[in-house]
Design goal:
This protein is α+β, with helices and mostly antiparallel strands. The chain contains 12 helices and 19 strands. It is 44% helix and 23% strand. Strand 5 and strand 6 form a beta hairpin. Helix 3 runs antiparallel to helix 8 and helix 4 runs antiparallel to helix 5. The termini are far apart.
Length: 488
Protein backbone atom coordinates (compact mmCIF):
# COMPACT_ATOMS: atom_id res chain seq x y z
CA UNK A 1 0.00 0.00 0.00
CA UNK A 2 1.48 3.35 -1.02
CA UNK A 3 1.93 6.37 1.18
CA UNK A 4 -0.88 8.06 -0.79
CA UNK A 5 -3.20 5.17 0.07
CA UNK A 6 -2.38 5.48 3.78
CA UNK A 7 -2.99 9.26 3.62
CA UNK A 8 -6.33 8.63 1.94
CA UNK A 9 -7.31 6.15 4.65
CA UNK A 10 -6.42 8.71 7.31
CA UNK A 11 -8.80 11.15 5.67
CA UNK A 12 -11.50 8.47 5.52
CA UNK A 13 -11.04 7.85 9.26
CA UNK A 14 -12.03 11.45 9.91
CA UNK A 15 -14.89 11.38 7.40
CA UNK A 16 -16.47 8.08 8.46
CA UNK A 17 -20.29 8.08 8.36
CA UNK A 18 -21.88 8.43 11.77
CA UNK A 19 -25.50 7.45 11.11
CA UNK A 20 -27.38 5.43 13.69
CA UNK A 21 -27.27 1.65 13.23
CA UNK A 22 -30.49 -0.37 13.46
CA UNK A 23 -30.94 -2.43 16.60
CA UNK A 24 -30.30 -6.09 15.73
CA UNK A 25 -30.96 -9.28 17.69
CA UNK A 26 -29.25 -12.35 16.31
CA UNK A 27 -30.70 -15.85 16.24
CA UNK A 28 -28.93 -19.16 15.65
CA UNK A 29 -30.93 -22.13 14.34
CA UNK A 30 -29.96 -25.80 14.43
CA UNK A 31 -29.02 -27.01 10.92
CA UNK A 32 -30.71 -30.40 11.49
CA UNK A 33 -33.81 -28.84 13.06
CA UNK A 34 -34.39 -25.36 11.61
CA UNK A 35 -37.34 -24.81 13.93
CA UNK A 36 -35.04 -25.01 16.97
CA UNK A 37 -33.59 -21.50 17.32
CA UNK A 38 -32.11 -19.46 20.13
CA UNK A 39 -31.02 -15.90 20.74
CA UNK A 40 -27.22 -15.50 20.74
CA UNK A 41 -24.49 -12.90 21.08
CA UNK A 42 -22.19 -13.37 18.05
CA UNK A 43 -19.11 -12.37 20.07
CA UNK A 44 -19.74 -15.32 22.42
CA UNK A 45 -20.01 -18.04 19.76
CA UNK A 46 -17.20 -20.61 19.43
CA UNK A 47 -17.97 -21.54 15.76
CA UNK A 48 -17.32 -25.19 16.60
CA UNK A 49 -19.97 -26.59 14.22
CA UNK A 50 -19.30 -27.42 10.54
CA UNK A 51 -21.22 -24.30 9.59
CA UNK A 52 -22.85 -21.69 11.78
CA UNK A 53 -25.84 -19.74 10.49
CA UNK A 54 -27.00 -16.52 12.14
CA UNK A 55 -30.09 -14.57 11.17
CA UNK A 56 -31.69 -11.34 12.27
CA UNK A 57 -34.58 -9.05 11.39
CA UNK A 58 -33.51 -5.53 10.50
CA UNK A 59 -36.32 -2.97 10.60
CA UNK A 60 -35.82 -0.06 8.22
CA UNK A 61 -38.15 2.95 8.67
CA UNK A 62 -39.83 4.19 5.47
CA UNK A 63 -38.00 7.53 5.66
CA UNK A 64 -34.61 5.73 5.84
CA UNK A 65 -35.08 3.31 2.99
CA UNK A 66 -32.75 5.22 0.69
CA UNK A 67 -29.92 5.55 3.23
CA UNK A 68 -26.98 3.22 2.49
CA UNK A 69 -26.50 0.13 4.66
CA UNK A 70 -23.70 -2.41 5.03
CA UNK A 71 -22.99 -5.54 7.04
CA UNK A 72 -19.56 -5.32 8.74
CA UNK A 73 -17.86 -8.30 10.36
CA UNK A 74 -14.47 -8.91 11.94
CA UNK A 75 -14.09 -12.65 12.44
CA UNK A 76 -11.62 -15.51 12.16
CA UNK A 77 -13.95 -17.28 9.77
CA UNK A 78 -15.12 -17.47 6.18
CA UNK A 79 -18.39 -15.64 5.69
CA UNK A 80 -21.32 -15.50 3.30
CA UNK A 81 -23.99 -12.80 3.77
CA UNK A 82 -27.55 -12.78 2.39
CA UNK A 83 -30.07 -9.95 2.52
CA UNK A 84 -33.67 -11.05 2.11
CA UNK A 85 -32.39 -14.33 0.71
CA UNK A 86 -30.12 -12.74 -1.92
CA UNK A 87 -26.30 -13.09 -1.57
CA UNK A 88 -24.71 -9.64 -1.14
CA UNK A 89 -21.15 -10.57 -0.22
CA UNK A 90 -18.75 -13.38 0.51
CA UNK A 91 -15.43 -13.32 2.37
CA UNK A 92 -13.69 -16.53 1.40
CA UNK A 93 -15.93 -19.56 0.89
CA UNK A 94 -17.67 -21.15 3.91
CA UNK A 95 -17.77 -24.93 3.78
CA UNK A 96 -18.72 -27.97 5.84
CA UNK A 97 -15.07 -29.10 6.16
CA UNK A 98 -11.52 -27.85 5.79
CA UNK A 99 -11.13 -29.07 2.21
CA UNK A 100 -14.18 -27.22 0.92
CA UNK A 101 -13.61 -23.97 2.84
CA UNK A 102 -11.56 -21.10 1.43
CA UNK A 103 -10.28 -18.84 4.26
CA UNK A 104 -11.37 -15.21 4.17
CA UNK A 105 -9.87 -12.03 5.59
CA UNK A 106 -10.39 -11.05 9.20
CA UNK A 107 -12.22 -7.79 8.36
CA UNK A 108 -14.99 -7.62 5.76
CA UNK A 109 -17.76 -5.22 4.81
CA UNK A 110 -20.65 -6.07 2.47
CA UNK A 111 -22.73 -3.10 1.22
CA UNK A 112 -26.47 -3.80 0.87
CA UNK A 113 -27.80 -3.03 -2.63
CA UNK A 114 -30.49 -0.31 -2.33
CA UNK A 115 -32.83 -2.37 -4.48
CA UNK A 116 -32.93 -5.10 -1.80
CA UNK A 117 -33.79 -2.78 1.08
CA UNK A 118 -37.48 -2.50 1.80
CA UNK A 119 -39.43 -0.53 4.34
CA UNK A 120 -40.20 -2.51 7.45
CA UNK A 121 -38.66 -5.88 8.19
CA UNK A 122 -35.61 -7.23 6.31
CA UNK A 123 -33.95 -10.56 7.04
CA UNK A 124 -30.17 -10.84 7.03
CA UNK A 125 -28.54 -14.28 7.14
CA UNK A 126 -24.83 -14.93 7.77
CA UNK A 127 -23.17 -18.31 7.27
CA UNK A 128 -19.75 -18.86 8.87
CA UNK A 129 -17.17 -21.65 9.05
CA UNK A 130 -13.74 -21.67 10.71
CA UNK A 131 -12.06 -25.00 9.83
CA UNK A 132 -8.63 -23.38 9.28
CA UNK A 133 -8.21 -22.26 12.87
CA UNK A 134 -5.14 -24.18 14.07
CA UNK A 135 -5.58 -23.10 17.72
CA UNK A 136 -8.78 -22.78 19.78
CA UNK A 137 -10.01 -19.18 19.87
CA UNK A 138 -12.37 -18.00 22.59
CA UNK A 139 -13.89 -15.20 20.49
CA UNK A 140 -13.63 -15.90 16.74
CA UNK A 141 -16.27 -13.23 15.98
CA UNK A 142 -14.82 -9.94 17.13
CA UNK A 143 -17.44 -7.56 15.73
CA UNK A 144 -20.71 -7.89 13.81
CA UNK A 145 -22.66 -4.75 12.94
CA UNK A 146 -25.26 -3.46 10.48
CA UNK A 147 -25.30 0.24 9.72
CA UNK A 148 -23.85 2.95 7.47
CA UNK A 149 -21.08 1.62 5.19
CA UNK A 150 -17.58 1.67 6.65
CA UNK A 151 -14.29 1.34 4.84
CA UNK A 152 -12.78 -1.77 6.42
CA UNK A 153 -9.21 -0.54 5.88
CA UNK A 154 -10.02 2.89 7.28
CA UNK A 155 -11.67 1.32 10.32
CA UNK A 156 -8.58 -0.82 10.93
CA UNK A 157 -6.24 2.13 10.50
CA UNK A 158 -8.30 4.24 12.89
CA UNK A 159 -8.02 1.47 15.49
CA UNK A 160 -4.23 1.42 15.19
CA UNK A 161 -3.63 5.17 14.92
CA UNK A 162 -2.47 5.43 18.58
CA UNK A 163 0.04 2.65 17.95
CA UNK A 164 1.32 4.37 14.80
CA UNK A 165 1.60 7.69 16.62
CA UNK A 166 3.57 6.33 19.58
CA UNK A 167 5.77 3.84 17.72
CA UNK A 168 8.06 6.59 16.43
CA UNK A 169 9.41 7.38 19.91
CA UNK A 170 10.70 3.87 20.83
CA UNK A 171 12.05 3.45 17.30
CA UNK A 172 13.86 6.81 17.39
CA UNK A 173 15.39 6.16 20.82
CA UNK A 174 16.46 2.65 19.76
CA UNK A 175 18.27 4.07 16.72
CA UNK A 176 19.92 6.71 18.94
CA UNK A 177 21.14 4.09 21.40
CA UNK A 178 22.49 1.94 18.57
CA UNK A 179 24.45 4.93 17.28
CA UNK A 180 25.84 5.70 20.75
CA UNK A 181 26.77 2.06 21.27
CA UNK A 182 28.64 1.91 17.96
CA UNK A 183 30.41 5.19 18.80
CA UNK A 184 31.48 3.79 22.18
CA UNK A 185 29.52 6.37 24.17
CA UNK A 186 27.52 3.74 26.08
CA UNK A 187 28.43 0.24 27.19
CA UNK A 188 26.91 -3.20 27.71
CA UNK A 189 24.52 -2.15 30.53
CA UNK A 190 22.44 -0.43 27.85
CA UNK A 191 21.92 -3.65 25.90
CA UNK A 192 19.06 -4.91 28.08
CA UNK A 193 16.92 -1.73 27.78
CA UNK A 194 17.75 -1.71 24.06
CA UNK A 195 16.53 -5.31 23.75
CA UNK A 196 13.22 -4.36 25.41
CA UNK A 197 12.80 -1.43 23.04
CA UNK A 198 13.62 -3.64 20.05
CA UNK A 199 10.96 -6.18 21.05
CA UNK A 200 8.37 -3.42 21.48
CA UNK A 201 9.23 -1.90 18.09
CA UNK A 202 8.89 -5.29 16.37
CA UNK A 203 5.57 -5.77 18.14
CA UNK A 204 4.35 -2.38 17.00
CA UNK A 205 5.35 -3.01 13.40
CA UNK A 206 3.61 -6.37 13.45
CA UNK A 207 0.58 -4.77 15.09
CA UNK A 208 0.11 -2.19 12.34
CA UNK A 209 1.02 -4.61 9.54
CA UNK A 210 -2.67 -5.47 9.38
CA UNK A 211 -3.21 -2.08 7.74
CA UNK A 212 -1.02 -2.88 4.73
CA UNK A 213 -1.09 -6.70 4.50
CA UNK A 214 -4.45 -8.30 3.55
CA UNK A 215 -3.82 -11.70 5.13
CA UNK A 216 -6.49 -14.33 5.74
CA UNK A 217 -7.78 -15.31 9.16
CA UNK A 218 -5.32 -18.24 9.76
CA UNK A 219 -2.50 -15.72 9.34
CA UNK A 220 -4.36 -13.32 11.60
CA UNK A 221 -4.24 -16.02 14.28
CA UNK A 222 -0.51 -16.53 13.62
CA UNK A 223 -0.02 -12.76 13.99
CA UNK A 224 -1.78 -12.78 17.35
CA UNK A 225 0.27 -15.75 18.58
CA UNK A 226 3.54 -14.04 17.61
CA UNK A 227 2.40 -10.84 19.33
CA UNK A 228 1.65 -12.84 22.49
CA UNK A 229 5.11 -14.45 22.31
CA UNK A 230 6.80 -11.07 21.91
CA UNK A 231 4.83 -9.77 24.90
CA UNK A 232 6.15 -12.70 26.94
CA UNK A 233 9.72 -11.94 25.82
CA UNK A 234 9.33 -8.26 26.72
CA UNK A 235 7.97 -9.27 30.12
CA UNK A 236 10.90 -11.60 30.83
CA UNK A 237 13.38 -8.91 29.78
CA UNK A 238 11.59 -6.52 32.15
CA UNK A 239 12.05 -9.04 34.97
CA UNK A 240 15.76 -9.31 34.10
CA UNK A 241 16.05 -5.53 34.19
CA UNK A 242 14.34 -5.45 37.58
CA UNK A 243 16.78 -8.07 38.86
CA UNK A 244 19.73 -6.06 37.60
CA UNK A 245 18.47 -2.99 39.44
CA UNK A 246 17.59 -4.54 42.80
CA UNK A 247 18.53 -8.24 43.00
CA UNK A 248 21.21 -9.23 40.44
CA UNK A 249 22.07 -12.55 42.09
CA UNK A 250 18.53 -13.89 41.64
CA UNK A 251 18.12 -13.07 37.96
CA UNK A 252 18.16 -16.66 36.68
CA UNK A 253 15.77 -18.00 39.32
CA UNK A 254 13.36 -15.06 38.93
CA UNK A 255 13.32 -15.44 35.14
CA UNK A 256 12.69 -19.19 35.26
CA UNK A 257 9.88 -18.82 37.81
CA UNK A 258 8.26 -16.03 35.78
CA UNK A 259 8.44 -18.08 32.58
CA UNK A 260 6.87 -21.06 34.36
CA UNK A 261 4.05 -18.85 35.67
CA UNK A 262 3.47 -17.50 32.13
CA UNK A 263 3.22 -21.01 30.68
CA UNK A 264 0.81 -22.02 33.43
CA UNK A 265 -1.38 -19.00 32.74
CA UNK A 266 -1.57 -19.93 29.05
CA UNK A 267 -3.10 -23.29 30.05
CA UNK A 268 -5.97 -21.59 31.88
CA UNK A 269 -6.52 -18.50 29.73
CA UNK A 270 -7.91 -18.87 26.21
CA UNK A 271 -7.27 -16.53 23.31
CA UNK A 272 -3.91 -14.97 22.31
CA UNK A 273 -4.99 -11.47 23.39
CA UNK A 274 -5.95 -12.55 26.89
CA UNK A 275 -2.91 -14.82 27.14
CA UNK A 276 -0.62 -11.92 26.20
CA UNK A 277 -2.26 -9.69 28.80
CA UNK A 278 -1.96 -12.42 31.45
CA UNK A 279 1.75 -12.93 30.71
CA UNK A 280 2.45 -9.21 30.82
CA UNK A 281 0.58 -8.97 34.13
CA UNK A 282 2.65 -11.82 35.56
CA UNK A 283 5.85 -10.02 34.53
CA UNK A 284 4.65 -6.86 36.29
CA UNK A 285 3.82 -8.83 39.43
CA UNK A 286 7.26 -10.44 39.34
CA UNK A 287 8.99 -7.06 38.93
CA UNK A 288 6.95 -5.64 41.80
CA UNK A 289 7.79 -8.63 44.04
CA UNK A 290 11.50 -8.24 43.29
CA UNK A 291 11.45 -4.52 44.05
CA UNK A 292 9.39 -4.55 47.23
CA UNK A 293 12.11 -5.69 49.71
CA UNK A 294 14.50 -3.00 48.48
CA UNK A 295 11.67 -0.46 48.36
CA UNK A 296 10.89 -1.19 52.00
CA UNK A 297 14.51 -0.29 52.78
CA UNK A 298 14.02 3.06 51.08
CA UNK A 299 15.98 2.50 47.84
CA UNK A 300 14.70 5.02 45.32
CA UNK A 301 15.16 2.86 42.25
CA UNK A 302 13.21 0.05 43.86
CA UNK A 303 10.42 2.41 44.95
CA UNK A 304 10.10 3.78 41.42
CA UNK A 305 10.12 0.28 39.93
CA UNK A 306 7.47 -1.04 42.32
CA UNK A 307 5.23 2.00 41.77
CA UNK A 308 5.52 1.66 38.00
CA UNK A 309 4.67 -2.05 38.10
CA UNK A 310 1.62 -1.47 40.31
CA UNK A 311 0.34 1.39 38.14
CA UNK A 312 0.77 -0.57 34.91
CA UNK A 313 -0.86 -3.68 36.35
CA UNK A 314 -3.88 -1.65 37.55
CA UNK A 315 -4.16 0.11 34.17
CA UNK A 316 -3.94 -3.16 32.23
CA UNK A 317 -6.49 -4.85 34.51
CA UNK A 318 -8.96 -1.99 34.03
CA UNK A 319 -8.63 -1.73 30.24
CA UNK A 320 -8.37 -5.45 29.46
CA UNK A 321 -6.86 -6.92 26.27
CA UNK A 322 -7.20 -3.55 24.48
CA UNK A 323 -4.40 -2.30 26.76
CA UNK A 324 -1.96 -4.12 24.47
CA UNK A 325 -3.17 -2.03 21.50
CA UNK A 326 -2.75 1.40 23.11
CA UNK A 327 -1.55 1.53 26.73
CA UNK A 328 1.35 -0.85 26.15
CA UNK A 329 2.85 1.37 23.43
CA UNK A 330 2.15 4.60 25.31
CA UNK A 331 4.09 3.16 28.24
CA UNK A 332 6.94 2.12 25.94
CA UNK A 333 7.03 5.61 24.41
CA UNK A 334 7.27 7.26 27.82
CA UNK A 335 9.98 4.85 28.97
CA UNK A 336 11.88 5.42 25.72
CA UNK A 337 11.90 9.19 26.25
CA UNK A 338 13.22 8.83 29.81
CA UNK A 339 15.87 6.33 28.71
CA UNK A 340 16.92 8.50 25.78
CA UNK A 341 17.29 11.63 27.91
CA UNK A 342 19.23 9.77 30.60
CA UNK A 343 21.55 8.25 28.01
CA UNK A 344 22.18 11.49 26.13
CA UNK A 345 22.88 13.52 29.26
CA UNK A 346 25.32 11.07 30.90
CA UNK A 347 27.80 9.52 28.41
CA UNK A 348 30.17 12.51 27.97
CA UNK A 349 30.44 13.02 31.73
CA UNK A 350 31.24 9.34 32.20
CA UNK A 351 33.99 9.32 29.57
CA UNK A 352 35.59 12.53 30.87
CA UNK A 353 35.52 11.20 34.42
CA UNK A 354 37.16 7.94 33.36
CA UNK A 355 39.93 9.77 31.47
CA UNK A 356 40.73 12.06 34.39
CA UNK A 357 40.71 9.15 36.82
CA UNK A 358 43.05 7.10 34.66
CA UNK A 359 45.60 9.94 34.87
CA UNK A 360 45.43 10.55 38.63
CA UNK A 361 44.74 7.34 40.57
CA UNK A 362 45.74 3.67 40.53
CA UNK A 363 43.06 1.19 39.57
CA UNK A 364 41.91 -1.85 41.53
CA UNK A 365 41.37 -5.28 39.97
CA UNK A 366 38.39 -7.37 41.07
CA UNK A 367 37.73 -10.88 39.86
CA UNK A 368 34.52 -12.43 38.55
CA UNK A 369 35.37 -16.10 38.07
CA UNK A 370 37.91 -16.20 35.27
CA UNK A 371 37.24 -12.55 34.34
CA UNK A 372 38.91 -9.47 35.79
CA UNK A 373 37.40 -6.01 36.24
CA UNK A 374 39.79 -3.06 36.39
CA UNK A 375 38.02 -0.23 38.21
CA UNK A 376 38.81 3.26 39.44
CA UNK A 377 38.17 3.28 43.22
CA UNK A 378 36.83 6.84 43.20
CA UNK A 379 34.05 5.74 40.82
CA UNK A 380 32.80 3.04 43.19
CA UNK A 381 29.77 4.43 45.04
CA UNK A 382 29.01 1.47 47.29
CA UNK A 383 29.32 -2.31 47.54
CA UNK A 384 26.55 -4.75 48.32
CA UNK A 385 27.34 -8.25 49.59
CA UNK A 386 25.31 -11.43 49.06
CA UNK A 387 26.85 -14.70 50.28
CA UNK A 388 30.20 -15.13 48.53
CA UNK A 389 29.39 -12.56 45.85
CA UNK A 390 29.43 -8.79 45.79
CA UNK A 391 27.79 -6.20 43.55
CA UNK A 392 29.88 -3.09 42.88
CA UNK A 393 27.71 -0.03 42.16
CA UNK A 394 29.54 2.49 39.98
CA UNK A 395 28.97 6.23 39.57
CA UNK A 396 28.10 5.78 35.88
CA UNK A 397 25.19 3.47 36.76
CA UNK A 398 26.90 0.15 36.12
CA UNK A 399 26.40 -2.74 38.52
CA UNK A 400 29.31 -5.18 38.39
CA UNK A 401 29.02 -8.57 40.04
CA UNK A 402 32.28 -10.08 41.36
CA UNK A 403 33.02 -13.43 42.99
CA UNK A 404 34.70 -11.91 46.03
CA UNK A 405 33.55 -11.28 49.58
CA UNK A 406 33.00 -7.77 50.87
CA UNK A 407 35.91 -8.16 53.29
CA UNK A 408 38.26 -9.21 50.47
CA UNK A 409 37.29 -6.24 48.31
CA UNK A 410 37.73 -3.76 51.15
CA UNK A 411 41.23 -5.08 51.73
CA UNK A 412 42.14 -4.04 48.16
CA UNK A 413 40.53 -0.60 48.21
CA UNK A 414 42.31 2.53 49.44
CA UNK A 415 41.29 4.58 52.46
CA UNK A 416 37.92 6.25 52.22
CA UNK A 417 35.79 3.10 52.01
CA UNK A 418 33.86 2.26 55.13
CA UNK A 419 31.67 -0.70 56.06
CA UNK A 420 28.32 0.56 57.40
CA UNK A 421 26.39 -2.72 57.52
CA UNK A 422 27.14 -6.42 57.30
CA UNK A 423 25.98 -6.25 53.66
CA UNK A 424 27.09 -2.74 52.64
CA UNK A 425 30.20 -0.62 52.38
CA UNK A 426 30.29 2.92 50.99
CA UNK A 427 32.77 5.30 49.44
CA UNK A 428 32.79 8.25 51.85
CA UNK A 429 33.42 10.60 48.93
CA UNK A 430 29.90 9.81 47.65
CA UNK A 431 28.18 10.23 51.03
CA UNK A 432 25.69 13.12 50.99
CA UNK A 433 23.77 12.73 54.25
CA UNK A 434 22.77 10.66 57.27
CA UNK A 435 19.54 10.72 59.24
CA UNK A 436 17.49 8.58 61.65
CA UNK A 437 15.34 5.94 59.97
CA UNK A 438 12.40 3.78 61.05
CA UNK A 439 14.72 1.02 62.31
CA UNK A 440 17.97 2.88 62.85
CA UNK A 441 20.08 5.37 60.99
CA UNK A 442 20.33 5.48 57.19
CA UNK A 443 22.79 7.16 54.83
CA UNK A 444 22.08 8.95 51.56
CA UNK A 445 24.53 8.69 48.69
CA UNK A 446 25.12 11.14 45.87
CA UNK A 447 23.32 8.93 43.32
CA UNK A 448 20.13 8.93 45.40
CA UNK A 449 20.64 5.52 47.01
CA UNK A 450 19.57 5.08 50.65
CA UNK A 451 21.30 2.38 52.73
CA UNK A 452 20.75 1.22 56.32
CA UNK A 453 23.46 1.63 58.96
CA UNK A 454 24.10 -1.34 61.23
CA UNK A 455 24.24 -0.58 64.95
CA UNK A 456 27.73 -2.02 65.34
CA UNK A 457 29.01 0.18 62.52
CA UNK A 458 27.34 3.46 63.54
CA UNK A 459 30.22 4.69 65.72
CA UNK A 460 32.82 4.03 63.01
CA UNK A 461 30.66 5.87 60.50
CA UNK A 462 30.37 8.88 62.82
CA UNK A 463 34.15 8.95 63.23
CA UNK A 464 34.55 8.68 59.46
CA UNK A 465 32.22 11.62 58.89
CA UNK A 466 34.10 13.67 61.47
CA UNK A 467 37.46 12.87 59.86
CA UNK A 468 36.12 13.65 56.39
CA UNK A 469 34.78 16.98 57.60
CA UNK A 470 38.07 17.81 59.35
CA UNK A 471 36.44 18.09 62.79
CA UNK A 472 37.84 16.76 66.09
CA UNK A 473 37.68 13.00 66.55
CA UNK A 474 34.91 13.29 69.14
CA UNK A 475 31.70 11.75 67.90
CA UNK A 476 29.25 14.16 66.28
CA UNK A 477 25.61 14.34 67.27
CA UNK A 478 23.87 11.39 65.54
CA UNK A 479 20.92 13.63 64.71
CA UNK A 480 23.14 15.72 62.44
CA UNK A 481 23.36 14.82 58.78
CA UNK A 482 26.65 14.20 57.04
CA UNK A 483 26.07 17.34 55.02
CA UNK A 484 25.77 19.46 58.17
CA UNK A 485 28.93 17.90 59.66
CA UNK A 486 30.90 18.54 56.49
CA UNK A 487 29.88 22.20 56.47
CA UNK A 488 31.19 22.85 59.98
Amino acid sequence: MTAFRILLLLMLCLAEPTGAAPAVRWTQCDAARPSLCRRVMPEQLALDMPRTTLSAIVTVPPDSIHEPLAVDIDAMASVEIRWNGVPIGRNGVPGPDRASEVPGRFSFSAPVPPSLVRAGENRVTITLSAHHLWLPVAQPIHRLAIGPPLDADAYTLRHYLPTLATLALPLGVLLLLCALLIAGRIGKPALLPMAILAVVVVQGLLEVSKVVLPYTYPWQLARLVVLAGLTAIAGLLLVLLACRLVLPLRARAATVLTAAAMLTACLFVSGPDRQALAMFGIALIAAMSLAMPAAMRGERKAIALAAMAVALAAWAWQVGPNFLDVGYYLTAAGAAVVLGLATVLRPVQVIERRLSIAMTEPAVTLRDGACRHILAPSQIVFLKAADDYCTVHMADGRQIMVTMTLKAILSLLPAGFLRIHRSHAINMAHLSGMRPGPSGRVVHLADGTTLPVGRTYAAALSRGIAETAGTPSSLPDPSLSAGSVLRR
